[in-house]
Amino acid sequence: MCISKGNRASAARPIKLYGVMFEDQKKMIRDVHFDGLLKIECSTIPAELANWLMFECFNADTSELILPGSGRIPVTTQSVADILHLPSKPKSNISLTWTP
Questions:
Q1: What's the structural domain count of the chain?
Q2: pTM flag (> 0.70)
Q3: Residue 20's domain spans which residues?
Q4: What is the strand order of the sheet 58-59 is part of?
């Protein structure tokens, strides 16, 4: 499995990687309860949207996205874990070793 390095911060990178992963590799991700990452299908984020969210809506003091007329979205470890279906605390009994 060889993936071009390209832009290391690219939103498309995980999407491309998931497409060439073997099922046992995906199972390892599911086994540590990170399966929410496998469900991400959006490979791009429009720059104008990202800029609006980060510069117009994000309040660093309260760690919230404040959406005019729609309310507030907390940006915390727990809220991100809830949205992406990820564990918010490490599991002490999980082994992350893998051999091909």
A1: 2
A2: no
A3: 10-44
A4: 58-59, 64-67, 71-74
